[in-house]
């Protein structure tokens, strides 16, 4: 009995009326863990019951503690008939199992019912007493910390990065079991919620075991996904990066971060060897130096000295890292994006305990990724992620990452520090240098000497799935670049369908790539970060959506323009047509240069802390002016013509040009990117707003040509962006970070039910949910903004701290009109791994929640939009409540991984599944002075308190 | 191609105050979109009508979901569903409970019953306020009425605390509740010139003195039980011929030469005095209370107005009229008189305009 779980039910509030006669409720609570259930007394006739129960104690194995959630059910007592359930609360107690995370869960939780949504709240206290268990063969992995964050968490230092961990568990989907025919959908959905909660607990425990085996104590970049395979079952899988993390003690590490060149590099080969012998299946001996990346404005830049050392890493299985952001110097070179896809036919999983087929499928893909990386001369893959898309029995598995060379040495930051003002030392450009052999290139590419150091070769463009390294030298600002593609496909079944899809895939990848390349050139940029390509399958179409953040890396050559060429240049009007097109393109490029501040030197000066030295700038300037000459040369010399020359005869090319030019420019004051930080912008305020948007469109039959579909798809995406800009107009200047699109084409059977008018024989419904998780960060700009700043709160130094001026300043004024202050803690949510201008002081544990909501009165709830709107709001509320109960005030690295929506308007029904995850944290606001040396404790807890009232 | 579903949810609930106003005013989504388009938001953000429509729909949905909470504003602060900064909460509540002057003028003094609610379409047609908005406002009145009816303590403070309203709005609601409870007649043609604010002010005057406890006392100040008899005693001022003459000469002496309307004042003194004192006597009868304002206008304000008194004349007259009574040696009800005249004077001064 290595653990004792204790729970206490304190009170309820805002309960629904369960007894129509008295307009009151006789509520009591069942508390269940594993197979043990306790009950509170009935608190009669109240909507705000005060149970104040005793402590219910569960003595359980820590294995169960990890797997099982605590289930709290609120019921209405009924003397004559069965008790009615009001709703449930599932509490994941995992955060209590780690000594460094939360110690108690205490707070108001929304009582959730799959049919009625949130029905009041319940106040619960939960504690865990753990006994030490030294059993070597234990099945639990208590104490291993999990982080969704794809970088080393802010208040930790990575002592060792062990490498890739993965696991998957499968089960039958309760919705497809025989029992589902006789039970209510509500019971079935509750069973599903419970099962998934259990499965993710189990998965986490198993991954934890692997980490312990490797000698680590944490999983960073933990990515868990559900595959709802329908008939063939339910797969929950996860990948992550095992690490050994040391907690940073505020104060002690200040010395370390200061450049003390006196200290010798503590390069310790012994350490390297020591950890090896353990027989973990994925093992990579890597030791990054510091957990803390300097802010982009830091005057110190690190230069990697490892220019010529050959890869010496001992790579046993998969040298993959789910991290996208690394300590400086960790990344030596980047090869490029590697990705692999495979189309599979689903079959029933016969033995859930041996999910061999699924494992084998992923194994295959990972091998492929690994060999791709090798071909690029790289020994590791960073920014690695996996995903699936399922349409009936066809399933596409995808994996992608960035091939890279990592630094196997233990480097100290003090070793090679150059001042920004030192003319002889360019900022770091090492990661751009090619890792592969110049004379034996894996693909045709144009190589030049690095525009920074002039010593190494760099490619002409660089695509990656990781975030922009903090030390990278960037010219101008970045922007979001999207490539969108639709392809029709014949409706088919089984193997024929799978073959058709796999035949289409390479073409889609190629076209998406071409589109990205063209759009990149059009914006006069030369590198993509955070590239994410999603391909979704529908009954009769395939959808591809690639998003990335384009940027101009100073180390790479300036991109050439785009030239249009006609194949039959005989007709005069035709020539004219081409030249007008060419002119439009050239104009757009010129406009974009202005827009993104690329190249005019006076603009560079505006960027605060731009790490580009004068010399570099002038060189850069020169190189862009040369671009036209370069262009013609490139046209002839290389096979990658498509990136530069568009031949207009080709219908595809016409389409390409159209899609190039139809991208509406962003309204002034807006910036957007899909990475964590916006390249070229450094002056964030702490104003932050996260939101989710979902849209579903129905397509008419008429538009079923590829071109028509493409146009529609592009318009949809553009409209959505426009809509966002419009909604957020009051926050200008603002940046939409981590803009993350998800597309899906739901199965058609849904559709057929929806229309009963015979006129529409087969209206193709094109459900298209886009979940966008965006955080907005305000920028400080002109004087006007400064005047709005709020100076009462930060007593001493408020000069440049203008955090979301309007909201906070007003909030204080208005508190007088409200009684008793706001009792609800404000919880911020963000898909970023940090909150600008704040310091995360503690990670409280991972949040991983799964909800199902259904309705049988769709019209009454405001139709599909009303239904989903309230469901998403409820999900947010439940996430916030859990974080607040853990004692946190924010969720970082938040993401909505799954949002599956189904409806049947004829029956007035709808159902939706949502899966969200993130890291619960406590943050404190940093005053501006303290922001410069980022590790000093600011001790200004009072500011968070004040903020908490907003 | 059509949009089937379009949802936008922020962690901090995003609301547009302008759209909120349209929603409160009972505009349909289409109308709101139209007005917004004319308002020129589109040009400023390069958005299309579609974008505007989607935004408006989103906001309307949010408001609809919030409406339930706005019915008991205290809940808004500790609910978990929407994360709304306090200043926004205050704004939402205040605007939700704000009413249209023209609308309230129509229902002021009416019973807040189902019957009245059924007639709201007429009110809507008459005032130009949409039926939806009329219903909201009417329900607000009714809700506030129901809550304070059951409560002890000062009326305004109760409303303020329960509905988290600003002081001004709480006072207005107190007036509405007060009028509804006493069913004051406000709809007669002669009273049309009076605005809601005039009535609200008078209500404030009438409430100020009393209303320290519960529903029984949600009545004019002057109807306190111990007061009833005393008010009747004031009648002596007009029934006793000597007293009336004495009072008149005292007032006339004081006024002589100070106003142009002196002659009219002198000529009308007895009528005016009778009017005021009779109103006091009538207050003792609950049924007659509802005629308070009409009496005031008919018996006092109209005669003065036809004699072209200025507001200054009125003030002067009432001051001396009140004070002179103290000098009357046979008049014993000074305290009651002061209390009564204090209220009446300020009411008349407020109501004396075109």
Automatic annotation (TrEMBL), chain A:
It is found in: Cell membrane; Cell projection, Ruffle; Cytoplasm, Cell cortex; Cytoplasmic vesicle membrane. It comes from the Eukaryota. GO terms for molecular function: calcium ion binding; calcium-dependent phospholipid binding. Residues 255-294 are annotated as: Disordered. GO terms for biological process: insulin receptor signaling pathway; intracellular protein transmembrane transport; positive regulation of D-glucose transmembrane transport; positive regulation of protein targeting to membrane; positive regulation of vesicle fusion; protein localization to plasma membrane. Residues 277-287 have a biased composition (Low complexity). One of its GO terms (cellular component) is plasma membrane. Residues 1-109 form the C2 domain. The keyword Hydrolase does not apply. Pfam families: C2, YbjQ_2, YbjQ_3, YbjQ_4. The keyword Transport applies. InterPro entries: C2_C2CD5, C2_dom, C2_domain_sf, C2CD5, C2CD5_C, C2CD5_YbjQ-like_dom, C2CD5_YbjQ-rel_dom. Keywords: Calcium, Cell membrane, Cell projection, Cytoplasm, Cytoplasmic vesicle, Lipid-binding, Membrane, Metal-binding, Protein transport, Transport. This is C2 domain-containing protein 5.
TrEMBL record, chain B:
Transmembrane segments: none annotated. GO terms for molecular function: fibroblast growth factor binding. One of its GO terms (biological process) is platelet aggregation. Coiled coil: none annotated. It comes from the Eukaryota. GO terms for cellular component: nucleus. InterPro entries: FIBP. This is Fibroblast growth factor (acidic) intracellular binding protein a. It comes from Oncorhynchus mykiss (Rainbow trout).
């Amino acid at each position: 009995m290595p653990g004792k779980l204790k729970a206490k039910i304190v009170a309820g509030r805002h309960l629904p009326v369960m007894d129509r006669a008295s307009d009151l409720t006789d509520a009591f609570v069942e508390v269940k863990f594993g197979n043990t259930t306790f009950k509170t007394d009935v608190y009669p006739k109240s909507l705000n019951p005060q149970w104040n129960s005793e402590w219910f104690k569960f003595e359980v194995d820590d294995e169960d503690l990890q797997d099982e959630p605590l289930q709290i059910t609120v019921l209405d007592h009924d003397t004559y008939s069965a008790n009615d359930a009001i709703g449930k609360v599932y509490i994941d107690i995992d955060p209590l199992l780690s000594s460094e995370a939360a110690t108690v869960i205490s707070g108001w939780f929304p009582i959730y019912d799959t049919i009625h949504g949130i029905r009041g709240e319940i106040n619960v206290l939960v504690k865990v007493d753990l006994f030490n268990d030294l059993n070597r063969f234990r099945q639990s992995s208590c104490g291993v910390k999990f982080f969704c964050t794809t970088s080393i968490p802010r208040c930790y230092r990575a002592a060792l990065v062990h490498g890739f961990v993965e696991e998957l568990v499968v089960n039958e989907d309760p919705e497809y079991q025989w029992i589902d025919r006789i039970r209510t959908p509500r019971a079935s959905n509750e069973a599903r919620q419970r099962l998934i909660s259990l499965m993710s607990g189990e998965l986490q425990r198993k991954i934890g075991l692997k980490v312990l085996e490797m000698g680590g104590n944490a999983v960073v970049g933990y990515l868990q996904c559900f595959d709802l395979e329908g008939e063939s079952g339910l797969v929950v899988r996860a990948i992550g990066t095992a690490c050994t993390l040391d907690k940073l003690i505020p104060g002690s590490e200040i010395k370390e971060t200061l450049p003390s060149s006196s200290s010798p590099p503590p390069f310790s080969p012994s350490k390297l060897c020591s950890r090896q012998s353990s027989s973990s299946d994925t093992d990579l001996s890597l030791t990054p130096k510091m957990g803390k990346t300097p802010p982009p404005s830091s005057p110190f830049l690190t230069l990697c000295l490892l220019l010529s050392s050959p890869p010496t890493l001992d790579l046993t299985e998969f040298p993959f890292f789910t991290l996208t952001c690394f300590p400086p110097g960790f990344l030596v070179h980047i090869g490029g994006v590697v990705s692999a896809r495979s189309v599979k036919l689903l079959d029933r999983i016969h033995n859930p305990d041996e999910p061999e087929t699924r494992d084998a499928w992923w194994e295959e893909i990972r091998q492929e990724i690994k060999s791709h990386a090798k071909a690029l001369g790289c020994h590791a893959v960073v920014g690695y992620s996996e995903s699936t898309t399922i349409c009936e029995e066809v399933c596409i598995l995808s994996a992608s990452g960035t091939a890279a060379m990592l630094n196997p040495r233990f480097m100290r930051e003090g070793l090679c520090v150059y001042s920004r003002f030192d003319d002889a030392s360019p900022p770091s450009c090492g990661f751009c240098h090619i890792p592969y052999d110049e004379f034996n290139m894996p693909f045709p590419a144009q190589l030049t000497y690095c525009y920074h150091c002039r010593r190494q070769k760099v490619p002409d463009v660089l695509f990656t799935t990781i975030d922009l390294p903090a030390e990278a030298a960037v010219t101008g600002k970045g922007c979001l670049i999207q490539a969108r593609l639709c392809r029709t496909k014949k409706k088919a079944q089984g193997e024929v369908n799978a073959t058709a899809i796999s035949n289409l895939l390479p073409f889609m990848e190629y076209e998406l790539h071409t589109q990205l390349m063209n759009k990149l050139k059009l914006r006069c940029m030369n590198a993509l970060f955070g590239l994410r390509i999603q391909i979704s399958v529908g009954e009769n179409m395939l959808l591809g959506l690639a998003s990335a953040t384009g940027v101009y890396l100073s180390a790479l050559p300036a991109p050439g323009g785009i030239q249009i060429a006609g194949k039959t240049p005989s007709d005069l009007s035709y020539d004219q047509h081409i030249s007008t097109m060419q002119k439009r393109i050239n104009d757009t490029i010129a406009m974009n240069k202005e827009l993104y501040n690329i190249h005019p030197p006076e603009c560079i000066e505006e960027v605060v802390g731009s790490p580009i030295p004068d010399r570099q700038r002038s060189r850069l300037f020169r190189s862009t002016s040369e671009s036209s000459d370069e262009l013609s040369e490139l046209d002839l010399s290389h096979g990658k013509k498509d990136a530069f020359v568009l031949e207009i005869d080709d219908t595809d090319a016409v389409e390409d040009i159209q899609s190039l030019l139809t991208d509406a420019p962003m309204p002034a004051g807006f910036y957007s990117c899909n990475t964590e930080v916006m390249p070229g912008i450094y002056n964030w305020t702490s104003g932050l707003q996260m939101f989710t948007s979902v849209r579903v469109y129905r397509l008419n039959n008429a538009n079923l040509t590829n071109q028509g579909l493409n146009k529609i798809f592009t318009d949809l995406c553009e409209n959505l962006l426009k809509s966002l800009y419009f909604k957020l107009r009051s926050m200008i200047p603002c940046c939409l970070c981590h803009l993350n699109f998800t597309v899906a084409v739901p199965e058609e059977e849904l559709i057929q039910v929806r229309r009963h008018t015979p006129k529409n024989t087969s209206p193709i419904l094109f459900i298209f949910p886009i979940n966008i998780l965006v955080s907005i960060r305000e920028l400080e700009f002109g004087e006007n903004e400064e005047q709005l700043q709020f100076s009462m709160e930060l007593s001493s130094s408020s000069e440049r701290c203008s955090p979301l001026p309007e909201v906070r300043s007003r909030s204080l004024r208005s508190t007088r009109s409200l009684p008793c202050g706001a009792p609800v803690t404000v919880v911020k949510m963000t898909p970023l791994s940090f909150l600008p201008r704040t310091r995360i002081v503690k990670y409280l544990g991972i949040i991983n929640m799964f909800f199902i909501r259904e309705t049988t009165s769709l019209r009454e709830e405001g139709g599909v939009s009303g239904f989903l709107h309230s469901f998403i709001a409820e999900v947010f509320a439940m996430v916030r409540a859990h974080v607040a109960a853990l004692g946190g005030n924010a969720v970082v690295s938040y993401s909505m991984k799954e949002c599956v929506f189904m409806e049947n308007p004829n029956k007035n029904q709808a159902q939706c599944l949502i899966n969200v995850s993130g890291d619960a944290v406590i943050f404190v606001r940093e005053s501006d002075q303290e922001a410069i040396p980022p590790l000093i404790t600011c001790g200004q807890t009072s500011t968070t308190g004040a903020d908490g009232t907003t | 191609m059509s949009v089937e579903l379009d949802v936008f949810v922020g962690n901090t609930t995003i609301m547009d105050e302008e759209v909120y106003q349209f929603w409160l005013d009972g505009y349909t989504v289409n109308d709101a979109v139209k007005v917004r388009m004319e308002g020129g938001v589109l040009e400023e953000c390069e958005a299309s009508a579609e974008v505007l429509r989607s935004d408006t729909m989103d906001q309307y949905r949010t408001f609809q979901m919030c409406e339930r909470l706005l019915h008991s504003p205290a809940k808004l602060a500790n609910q978990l569903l929407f994360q709304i900064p306090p200043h926004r909460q205050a704004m939402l509540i205040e605007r939700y409970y704000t009413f249209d002057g023209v609308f309230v003028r129509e229902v002021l003094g009416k019973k807040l019953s189902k019957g009245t609610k059924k007639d709201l379409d007429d009110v809507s047609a008459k005032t130009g306020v949409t039926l939806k908005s009329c219903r909201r406002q009417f329900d607000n009145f009714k809700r506030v009425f129901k809550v304070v009816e059951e409560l002890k303590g000062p009326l305004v403070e109760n409303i303020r605390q329960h509905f988290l309203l600003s002081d001004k709005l709480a006072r207005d609601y107190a007036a509405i509740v007060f009028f509804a409870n006493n069913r004051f007649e406000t709809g007669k043609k002669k009273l049309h010139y009076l605005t809601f604010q005039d009535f609200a002010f008078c209500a404030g005057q009438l409430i100020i003195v009393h209303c320290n406890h519960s529903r029984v006392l949600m009545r004019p100040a002057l109807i306190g039980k111990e007061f009833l008899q005393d008010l009747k005693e004031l009648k002596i001022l007009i029934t006793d011929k000597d007293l009336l003459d004495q009072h008149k000469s005292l007032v006339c002496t004081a006024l002589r030469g100070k106003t142009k309307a002196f002659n009219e004042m002198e000529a009308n003194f007895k009528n005016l005095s009778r009017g005021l004192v009779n109103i006091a006597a009538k207050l003792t009868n609950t049924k007659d209370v509802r005629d308070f304002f009409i009496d005031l206008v008919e018996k006092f304000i109209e005669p003065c107005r036809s004699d072209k008194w200025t507001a200054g004349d009125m003030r002067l007259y009432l001051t001396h009229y009140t004070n002179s009574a103290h000098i009357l040696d046979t008049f014993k009800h000074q305290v009651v008189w002061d209390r009564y005249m204090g209220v009446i004077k300020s009411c008349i001064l407020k109501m004396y305009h075109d």
